[in-house]
Amino acid sequence: MINKTINGFKTTWKGLSLTVRHLFASNAKREVISVTDDNYFKRMEGTNTIQYPHQSLPVPEVGRYQLDVEIDDCIVCDLCAKICPVDCITIDSIKATELIGNTSDGSPKRIYAAKFDIDMAKCMYCGLCTIVCPTECIVMTNQYDKTVFELKDLNYEFSDMTPEVAAEKKQLLENQIAERQAAKLAAMNKKGDGA
Prior knowledge:
34% of the residues lie in helices and 15% in strands. By secondary structure, it is of the alpha+beta class. A 3-stranded antiparallel sheet has the order 2-5-7, with helices on one face. A two-stranded antiparallel ribbon has the order 1-6. A two-stranded antiparallel sheet has the order 3-4.
């Protein structure tokens, strides 16, 4: 009985000393080194945690994090939305009546992006959308911390077109289509009268 009591005290003392040692070690700041450092996985002393947000780990260049869209370079081809396996990209397009302009790589823009939303709550960070983009307007940034309190705040809107402007562009397109159909019908009637 006395042997068990002594063994219990030894075990308790060993556990408490380990706890106290780690308690004071956790107040120390971890030396942040790159994952490419030879000593990265051999660290056996000090704390294993970083004091976030005061310290942060280096972000690898090829990491897959937050998506960003340079809307001025988007030709609204819809490839990113089609390849997305979780349907987190929503695009509404309006065909322009004339050439809008060019992207930074010289691609002509003929379609307006009335809506270009990415729901990062659904995103699985696969990076497929960045691969298929012909103008490289959608990229993965090195930003990984986008903490929000509401789930709806993870829905990012990249289009800068207001609903009023979108309605105006749609009306212009409908007018152009109606004019073309009227001209085509007039040409067919003229051809039918001349025959």
